[in-house]
Write a structure and sequence with these properties.
With 134 residues, the chain is mainly alpha-helical. The protein is built from 7 helices and no strands. InterPro entries: AhpD-like, AhpD_core, CMD-like, Uncharacterised_peroxidase-rel.
Length: 134
């Protein structure tokens, strides 16, 4: 899901110490998941966050890829136990790997999140500021 993708990015970006990606993707996770505190828990320590078994297995695998651990059959079995298949494993790994690169580019360019990302999913939108014309 979109929320799953954002949660993977939050966990791996936290490990990679990428402020921009942590803040912006936490915001997107809050919006997609409707869980306003979960991404903050994952930023601090995903292993003690209020995750479902499915989310925990997903993040365990994503973090193994992020840390460049040796991926074993045990990793795939853990995913399969909660309903993921090998194609899902590829998707999880691809997100973790892509954002490892993205995190490093954000560091290189000294990207900083804007205030809107910090507030997204925490503060109700001001619909009067909608600039889209019909």
């Amino acid at each position: 899901t979109k929320a799953d993708r954002e949660l993977i990015i939050v966990a791996t970006s936290s490990h990679n110490k990428c402020l921009y990606c942590v803040v912006s993707h936490s915001a997107l996770h809050r919006v997609y998941s409707k869980k306003p505190t979960l991404s903050d828990q994952v930023v601090v320590n995903y292993q003690i966050a209020d995750l479902t078994p499915r989310e925990r297995a997903m993040l365990d695998f994503a973090m193994a890829v992020c840390r460049c651990d040796t991926i074993t059959d045990e990793h795939f079995l853990s995913l399969e136990e909660v309903g993921f298949d090998r194609e899902d494993a590829w998707d999880i790994a691809a997100i973790a790997a892509f954002f490892a690169m993205s995190n490093r580019l954000a560091h290189l360019t000294d990207m900083k999140p804007n205030l809107e990302f910090f507030n997204m999913g925490r503060v109700p939108r001001d619909k009067s500021k909608n600039t889209t014309e019909m």
